[in-house]
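User: Hey, quick favor. My workstation is busy. Could you predict this chain's structure for me?
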Amino acid sequence: LERCIAFRKNNFSLSGKVAGVLAVGGNRNGGQELTIRSVQAALMSHQVLLVGDGLPTAHWGGTLWNMSDDDITQDEIGLATAKNLGRRVAAVALNTRD
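Assistant: No problem, here it is.
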């Protein structure tokens, strides 16, 4: 995130862009939402339009669980939040384009 200062110095080039954040934790409730909120706070200073994963789960973003061996493919709930987040980012981006 420290490297993002270049976007601010470049006339806030991320301003108005749509973004969603996802995080992977070692447990189901392993701090993913706190991590997401921290990244979102940094993105807000760039005037980025943030979206969460929406209904039915309505999280801050995609929250995945790395059950073992760097493998998230068995986390059906987390994968659903990631897919929902991607759909929401795309939908909002389409609705806000110039």
